[in-house]
């Protein structure tokens, strides 16, 4: 039902009405003469309407949400309430630095904390999404080669399992993408890498743990080979929870990393934003960092701009990135402290490995059965799809009836009928066990009543949609 259908003439939400004393200050000729056409609903009516709508959504506040890879991990309320402090909210981004020492010191500290946890030489917080962090990272790699008059390098190597933003980024920066296949165990094949390397290699983009949910064991060898060939190494660190406080991309000799602060460091990002794709750089790329970033001298903190960073690749946003997201990340890192970081990695991997083994026990097939899970892992329904006509979509839709969000399905594309599952570091054993029971139940039901599964979800406000049609011909008209 639309809010307009609740409307009754003369009804009002008085607490929300503007104070009439403000109105005379608007010049007469600018005042409306016709009615605004807003719904006329009581305050309670408004509250109930929107609360009811919000309850139709799946949300991490109400349901288990084991979406692999792009998962919202932990978003403590306190991070949000502190970031919403009036002092932060009312500060203009162009306010003089003498008025902005508080926020500048927070951002400086966050840069230092991220630098420390990644082992990189410097960090900047201005990219506003993972993809923008990637774009700036590859733009820096490009500038590095150009500054060295090394114009021949026109290829970026990406594993076939990479997140789609990786090859897209390389193309947007004017590179050709060379795809490297992962082997049966989900690793990069060194033998396949060697012939791809040469004077045309600008760099390689790696995700570790990879989007196949496994740790890449040959990083050192890959780093040495790529550096020997004159290329640089990019680390897609969108999801850092499996390695936090355990190993550092800087120590693995990566030249640049982006981190999705909105995934690993506490900002909820359902629905596509807002984000922060902070980047850390190694010594080779420090001069090219995008501006502004925060530095300090005897007079205090200040933003470094183009005048102090001549070789910068430039600006990525009007101001200094998504301050609100960066603030939440800052508060979260302070809550965790140095001791808290490795606990994130321990629980993220413990939960994922426990869930992986449990699902295997109840009859699901793992895509990489010989491997340990990272913060996530992949189940393949190839066999069930063939024998029972039970697809990943069917399981995803049926899980909704169990009050659980679906895992990521059909990504990475390499694995047939794939479910990429991440329980995250903050779910209890009881919740994870409930998920196992639901999954086992669905598998059992597939043997006896596949027709019902094919019709799922049965309990959601919308039943099964034709997802191809929903994209091509979305029906956005309200029809009761
Ligand atoms: C989410 C994600 C990205 C892209 O980040 P956005 O903020 O959505 O642009 C890149 N790589 C990996 C592995 C991701 O999970």
- Computed structural class: alpha/beta
Question: What is the topology, as strand order, of the major beta sheet?
Answer: 1-7-6-5-4-2-3
Number of helices: 15
Radius of gyration equals: 25 Å
Name the average pLDDT: 93
Largest sheet: 7 strands, mixed
Strand content: 5-15%
**In terms of per-residue confidence, which ranges show pLDDT below 50 for 5 or more consecutive residues?**
none
Bound molecules: pyridoxal-5'-phosphate
The total beta strand count reads: 13
* Helix-strand topology string: HHHHEHEHEHEHEEHEEEHEEHHEEHHH
Sum up the overall morphology in one term. Answer: globular
Percent range of helical residues = 25-40%
**Kindly, what is the distance between the CA atoms of the first and last residues, rounded to a whole number of angstroms?**
6 Å
Keywords:
single chain; 480 residues; alpha/beta; 7-stranded mixed sheet; 4-stranded antiparallel sheet; binds pyridoxal-5'-phosphate
What does this structure look like?
This protein is an alpha/beta fold. It contains 15 helices and 13 strands. Helix 2 runs antiparallel to helix 10. The protein is globular and about 75 Å long. Bound molecules: pyridoxal-5'-phosphate. The site of pyridoxal-5'-phosphate has 15 residues, from helix 5.
């Amino acid at each position: 039902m639309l809010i307009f259908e609740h409307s009754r003439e003369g009804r009002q939400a008085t607490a929300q009405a503007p104070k009439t004393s403000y109105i005379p200050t608007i010049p007469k000729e600018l005042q409306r003469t016709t009615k605004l056409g807003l719904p006329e609903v009581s305050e309670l009516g408004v509250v109930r309407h929107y609360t009811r709508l919000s309850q139709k959504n799946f949300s991490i506040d109400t349901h288990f949400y084991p979406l692999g890879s792009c998962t919202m991990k932990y978003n403590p309320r306190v991070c949000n309430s502190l970031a919403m402090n009036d002092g932060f909210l009312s500060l203009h981004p162009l306010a003089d630095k003498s008025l902005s020492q508080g926020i500048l010191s927070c951002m400086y500290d966050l840069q230092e904390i991220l630098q420390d946890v990644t082992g990189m030489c410097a960090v900047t917080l201005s990219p506003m999404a993972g993809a923008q962090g990637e774009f700036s990272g590859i733009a820096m790699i490009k500038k590095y080669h150009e500054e060295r008059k090394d114009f021949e390098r026109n290829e970026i190597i990406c594993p076939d399992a990479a997140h789609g933003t990786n090859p897209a980024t390389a193309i947007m920066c004017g590179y050709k993408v060379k795809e490297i296949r992962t082997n049966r165990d989900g690793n990069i094949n060194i033998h396949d890498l060697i012939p791809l390397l040469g004077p045309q290699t600008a760099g390689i983009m790696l995700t570790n743990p990879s989007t196949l949910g496994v740790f890449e064991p040959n990083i050192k060898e890959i780093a040495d080979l790529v550096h020997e060939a004159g290329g640089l190494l990019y680390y897609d660190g969108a999801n850092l929870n499996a390695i936090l406080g355990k190993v550092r991309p800087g120590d693995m000799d990566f030249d640049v990393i982006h981190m999705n602060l909105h995934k690993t460091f506490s900002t909820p990002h359902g629905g596509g934003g807002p984000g922060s794709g902070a980047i850390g750089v190694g010594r080779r790329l420090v001069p090219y960092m995008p501006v502004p970033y925060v530095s300090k001298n005897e007079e205090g903190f200040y933003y470094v701009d183009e005048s102090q960073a001549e070789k910068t690749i430039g600006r990525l946003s009007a101001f200094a990135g998504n301050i609100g997201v960066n603030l939440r990340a800052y508060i979260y890192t302070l809550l965790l402290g140095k001791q808290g970081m490795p606990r994130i990695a321990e629980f993220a991997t413990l939960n994922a490995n426990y869930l992986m083994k449990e699902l295997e026990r109840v009859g699901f097939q793992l895509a990489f059965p010989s491997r340990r899970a990272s913060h996530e892992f992949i189940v393949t329904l190839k066999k069930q799809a063939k024998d029972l006509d039970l697809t990943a979509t069917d399981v995803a839709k049926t899980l909704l009836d169990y009050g659980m969000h679906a895992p990521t399905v059909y990504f990475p594309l390499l694995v047939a009928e794939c479910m990429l599952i991440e329980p995250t570091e903050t779910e209890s054993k009881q919740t994870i066990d409930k998920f196992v029971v639901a999954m086992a139940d669905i598998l059992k039901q597939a043997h006896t009543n596949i027709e019902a599964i094919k019709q799922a979800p049965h309990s959601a406000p919308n039943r099964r949609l034709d997802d191809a049609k929903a994209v091509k011909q979305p029906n956005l008209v309200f029809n009761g």
